[in-house]
Structure formats: C-alpha cells, structure tokens
Amino acid sequence: MATVDFVEPNLNVLAHAQTLELEVGSRCGGHGICGGDRVRVLGEPPLSEITEAERRHLSKKELAAGIRLACQCFPNDSTISLRVEIFPDGQ
Question: Which of 18, 33, 51, 64 has the fewest CB atoms lying closer than 10 Å?
Fold first, then answer.
C-alpha cells in the first residue's frame, strides 16, 4: 500500500504512483491496453468515471470491489491524499 500526499487532477493514478517510483504493472505504458495496472484506491476519494477500457479488463466483481486501472482513473479533487493498494501483474 502506498500513500500519495500530493494530488494533481490532471494526472492519472498511474502517473502519481510513478512519481513515487512505485511499480504498478503497466506493461503498455498507460494506454489501457494491457490491464496490468490494477489498483484499489482506499477510502472514498472522488475519482473519474469507470472507462470502457476498465470494463474490458476488470470483472464486475473487481469493479464492485473498487479495483480500477491506474492508467484510467483520475482524482477529481486536489485537496485529498490517495491511499492505493497495488495488485502486481493484475493479481
């Protein structure tokens, strides 16, 4: 689990993780193709809507559990901290 204390709404969760040099598992470079950058943002932070790429790569069960693709979700509020659980290699 990692905590990002600065939040920039124009950066997706993957970019935030990369600023902390965290390996999230994005093999496609953040384009929503590989589905390998599965994370769960803990708490109830305001995030962007679920994308079609996330619907392709994540099961309904995963989505219901709050799992997102780090490259596809963006924070909607710059006044929060993000606490992120990382699922390496899509596990």
Answer: 64
Q: What is the pLDDT along the chain (91 residues), one digit of tens a residue?
A: 667 777 887 899 999 888 888 888 888 888 899 999 999 988 877 899 999 999 999 999 999 999 999 999 999 887 777 888 888 665 5
Q: Residue 15: which residues within 8 A CB-CB, separation 6 or more?
A: 30
The boundaries of the domain holding residue 78 are 2-90
Whichever domain contains 16, its CATH number is: 3.10.20.30
Work out how many domains the chain is built from and give that number: 1
Tell me, what amino acid is at 40?
R
